[in-house]
Structure prediction request, 313 residues.
Amino acid sequence: MKPLRVAFFGTPEFAVPTLEALARQHHVLLAVTQPPKPAGRGLTVRQPAAARLAEARDIEVAQPRRLRDPEFLARLRALDLDVGVTAAYGRILPPALLELPRFGVLNVHASLLPRWRGAAPIQHALIAGDAETGITIMQTEEGLDTGPIRLQRRVTVAASDDAVTLAASLAQLGAEVLTEALTLLAADSLPVTPQDEGAVTVAPPLTALDGHVRWHASAVDIANRHRGVAGWPGSSFEFGGSRVKVLELTALPDAETGAAAPGQVVRLTGDVVQVAAGSGIVELSTVKPASKGAMSARAWANGRGVRVGAVLV
Prediction:
């Protein structure tokens, strides 16, 4: 296959395997990422992961503040692009940009569209307890993940997966499926399948509140949310006016809670603290109180005088 002339749009770690695959097989003429932002305790300004890889591969990098900027669009037009590729870029591309490449723009999306359109498909799939997810290569339109499906690959969600591990595996899968899609595109044999608008679900960006443990939910739902918010914002609850991060928990869905209300401590055993959920019990294993290091849940409970009957909120 003759290498394609490509402009790549992507920003975080999820985008890196896709850019690597493109750089191996095609002419990546420009890598477009979000501008660097301050991060970490020292608010150090650091280039996004995709920009760092592009620089290491001697690929020209652009970080426009406005995608509709006439100079930026003229720059893209002059590249005589075959196709654009997006992978977690973080912005909706305007129509004036979408029409520039010969074959339009393909998006590497980490869900089985039309399920989980939006910015956080991996997290919402886990929170919902989906048994499978996957990668969709979609033809990008002006709307939010509304374009037709070009290629799709399904995978089973492992019980051990959380948002961090699942994102890493889907990033690799996305690069593989995109490679296949571009081969079919060059041969004019890439399918086009409209999305089923009746099956749409939406995956908006997570907020800090999404990590708060919802004790009235079932133990299974609490564990699924914990998996979905891993990385950021993480799970947490409050006790005595202080927030406590939850690093490890387990659902005991068939455990009896007796007369205990959701959020009430029902047992302290070994290194764990067992808490009543809406149904079943949540077993807290490792926690991190504010301004302290990680510790067993039992050690935290002993230090704070937490006894059976105490209520976590």
In short: The mean pLDDT is 97. The helical segments are 16-25, 49-56, 70-77, 95-98, 121-127, 163-186, 219-228, 297-304. The longest strand covers residues 242-252.
